[in-house]
Amino acid sequence: MGKNNHGLPRSERLKSRKTIGRLFDRNEAGNASFPAFPLRVVLFREKEEGSAYPEILISVSKRSFKKAVDRNRIKRLIREAYRLQKTPLPGKTYMAFLFTGKEVPGFGQVERAVGAILDKLRPG
Q1: Residue 77 in contact with residue 105, Cβ under 8 Å?
Q2: Taking residues 37-44, what's their average pLDDT?
Q3: What does pTM read for this prediction?
Q4: Do strands 55-60 and 31-36 pair parallel, antiparallel, or not at all (unpaired)?
Q5: Which of 38, 22, 40 lies closest to 30, judged by CA?
Q6: Three-class SS of residue 22?
Q7: Residue 47 and residue 19: Cα distance in Å, rounded?
Q8: What percent of the chain has pLDDT over 90?
Q9: Are 42 and 23 in contact (CB under 8 A)?
């Protein structure tokens, strides 16, 4: 049986404080940001040979969602939508998915937003 690429291993999760700082540094060359409601994506690309899966970070505002249950549910929805649609991108890419909506979305809405973001980033 072949190995599928539908997992989300630790190597694809963005944990480095230094890299997260570079991701959100407005003066850093190679940074981009764009919306796909109810998400906003911030990304940073390093020029490297080959292609790999991006390292991702998911954030939901505590100001908008006071209950941890709601924040965790939204993060789980985003993570699952990304996991099912992910593809390798050229170079080394770091991405942050920021939830900007004001209420807990359905999976279909999150899946469409993540799909729109990944379509924009795919080469070709």
Answers
A1: yes
A2: 96
A3: 0.91
A4: unpaired
A5: 22
A6: helix
A7: 15
A8: 75
A9: yes
